[in-house]
């Protein structure tokens, strides 16, 4: 897949943005079974200051007040309210790492299952948007730290296990993540996110025929998954199955009115 095409796909489906920078590993071959740590903030204010240029002027005072209140709060209820409110402001400004930071602060002070999961999910979202290699590694580590603590108590949470698996794929031991995804699929062969991620990883490693198999399986169980439908078309395209690619991409075009998706589909159709 050409770099320009990858960028276009990422614009359409930003949730998969980090996956194309992952190590190239063999995903589905049965024979292959086998940093920068973000500087600690001296205080919550330093995080706000670091991103202040991205927060609308009309909201900076509110965010600053919420941060001060969070630092002074002692009860779980107040800490949760303030952290959630701060995170909301940062998410609306597209600063997912800052949102995760404050939710992590809340979880660190009162580490119940709900707070840990919320922080882990926030760090995973930030991980999905990160492009810098060192930042990806840091956010992946934070995701694992929080979500693994939930999985210790709730090992049947395959949704969280899938997220942890994807953070391992971006590490120095990517096969650990692949094996975790396989374990998820052994337990739940129809798992939507695991099938999707295995398909994406097959694409990333150039195994387009394998990617076709994964995405065909995915949409067989989950036909409403527009990302899976789209990537199946792209996989057909890359596997030189032009007739199938054209038919599949046209199907995707008929499934949505989203101009970004349609533009990406037209880009591929124009090459067929």
From TrEMBL:
Q: What keyword terms does UniProt attach to this protein?
A: Repeat, TPR repeat
TPR repeat positions: 192-225
Taxonomy, superkingdom: Bacteria
Q: Where is this region: Disordered?
A: 39-59
Does the record carry Lyase as a key word? no
**Compositional bias annotation for Polar residues:** 49-59
Output this protein's name: Tetratricopeptide repeat protein
Source organism (scientific name): Echinicola arenosa
